[in-house]
Amino acid sequence: MTTEILSLAESAFEVPAAVPAQVPGFSALYAQVQQFYAHQMQLFDSHEAERWAGTFTEDAVFDVPTLEEPVRGRAALASNVRRNKAQQERSGERLRHWIGMLDLRPRADGTLHTRCYTLVYVTPGNGASKVHRVCVMEDVLVRSRGKWRTRSRVVSRDDLA
Question: C-alpha angle 148/79/64, rounded to 5°?
Fold first, then answer.
């Protein structure tokens, strides 16, 4: 019976031909990408609009379900952060983003495809923090001027699925 359960469990998951963790240097790359996201999200939560937008390529596309259409380019990305800041100041709430369960897939063309969970916490004025949104974030990262940058981001929300 145990063998049957293991076979069933193994068939439920797609196992890639080459497990990325077995690729030389993958651990260092994975740590770099985790650091990239930690830095990027802290810039976002601190409303450092231009610095956050600088973590994206010039022609980046940011597709999130809370907006009517995808945001395109650094100037629009920075503008969106300034709008978020103004909304949070009016509401008295503070948002924080936490990224976890990062799956990193290097591609032959040098891009990195990532998929991770993003929890958005909201803290009202003097209240207790709580989970505001549960999301899945899928990115394509590219090397640009010696740094990783986001070329495209698609965010989906569990409550809108």
Answer: 65
Query: How many CA atoms are closer than 13 Å to the CA of 130, on its beta-carbon side?
Result: 6
DSSP structure class, residue 100: E
pLDDT in tens, 59-75: 999 999 989 999 999 99
**What beta strand segments (E) does the chain contain?**
56-63, 71-72, 94-106, 112-123, 130-144, 147-157
Which of these, 82, 30, 29, lies nearest to 52 by C-alpha position?
A: 82
Rounded to 5°, the CA angle 56-29-13 comes to 95
Asked if pLDDT for residue 5 goes beyond 60, the answer is no
State whether residue 126 is helix, strand or coil: coil
Tokens, residue 104: 């990193």
**Number of other CB atoms surrounding residue 8 within 10 Å:** 9
Neighbours of 89 (CB within 10 A): 11
Compute the distance between CA of residue 52 and CA of residue 40 in angstroms, rounded to an integer: 6
Q: What is the DSSP letter of 8?
A: H
Residue 155 · residue 136 · CB < 8 Å: yes
Per-residue pLDDT band at 102 (split at 50, 70, 90): very high
